[in-house]
Amino acid sequence: DIQMTQSPSSLSASVGDRVTITCRASQSINTYFNWYQQKPGKAPKLLIYAASSLQSGVPSRFSGSGSGTDFTLTISSLQPEDFATYYCQQSYSIPYTFGQGTKLEIK
Amino acid sequence: QVQLVQSGPEVKKPGSSVKVSCKASGVTFTSQTISWVRQAPGQGLEWMGRITPMLDIENYAQKFRGRVTLTADESTTTAYMEMSSLRSEDTAVYYCTRDLDGSGVLDVWGKGTTVTVSS
Questions:
Q1: How far apart are the first and last CA of chain A?
Q2: In angstroms, what CA-CA distances link A87 with A4, A103, B108?
Q3: Cα B41 from chain centroid?
Q4: Pick from B106, B11, B71, B81: which is nearest to A88 by CA?
Q5: A44 by DSSP, 3-state: which?
Q6: Quick one: pLDDT at residue B66?
């Protein structure tokens, strides 16, 4: 199975900050890579697919980049509603696997 | 608009089985792929398997093969996840998701079904 490693596991930031979360795959996955946001008690929500494509309806302050094994999610200017847990996921091969999550908290 | 509506919470005894349903609307059901993902309390996301009704194909994560069965009823546009031999570690929220064109992009999620396994 492909292992996905996210960093950091948690992050404190302020409204307006620029934030970057990284994810590394244990082998090359091209751009078969996605990011999800999850708020407490809610289902995850797709933010970015194919490493850098913004899902419809997702604000443009979210962006993704990377290919191969290293990927990043950037939030250009944090908004109050962005405080949540973020998960990366590879869709290169079955079983799909997720990173352990990054909890983004208010400083 | 695609919607996935899941069945309600379940409380089960260890060793028993549970069957969770996921009714799809707003989409041609037979051409969809439905993946199932679970999340134990305070933990991350774990992909369990997927089913494509039109192709009659199921794929399972090795961890769940033999204990989880995914099925689909085209007449009611409902997918099902059945897990047997339940143990306390199976206590989790179980999500059905649309696996877009079988690509692994999970673009629509149900609200989740809480399954509690306790004696």
A1: 36
A2: 10, 9, 15
A3: 17
A4: B106
A5: coil
A6: 95
Q: Backbone phi, then psi, for A37, in 5-degree steps?
A: -115, 135
B66 in helix, strand or coil? coil
Reference B3, options B103, B97, B105; nearest CA is B97
User: Would you call A97 an interface residue with chain B, using a CB distance cutoff of 8 Å?
Assistant: yes
The residue of chain B nearest to residue A93, with distances taken between CA atoms, is B104
* A40: Cβ contacts below 8 Å, ≥ 6 apart: none
Structure tokens at A56: 């419809």
Look-up of token digits 């847990």: A85
pLDDT surpassing 90 at residue A107: no
Chain B closest-CA separation from residue A99 CA (Å): 8
3-state secondary structure of B2: coil
Mean pLDDT score of chain A: 97
One digit per residue, the tens of pLDDT, for chain B of length 119 reads: 899 999 999 999 999 999 999 999 998 887 899 999 999 999 999 999 999 988 889 999 999 999 999 999 999 999 999 999 999 999 999 999 999 999 999 999 999 999 999 99
Residues in B touching A45 (Cβ below 8 Å): 109
pLDDT at B30: 79
CB atoms A87 and B44 under 8 Å: yes
Query: A86: nearest CA in chain B?
Result: B44
State the best of B4, B58, B59, B105 to mutate against chain A, taking most chain A CBs within 10 Å.
B105
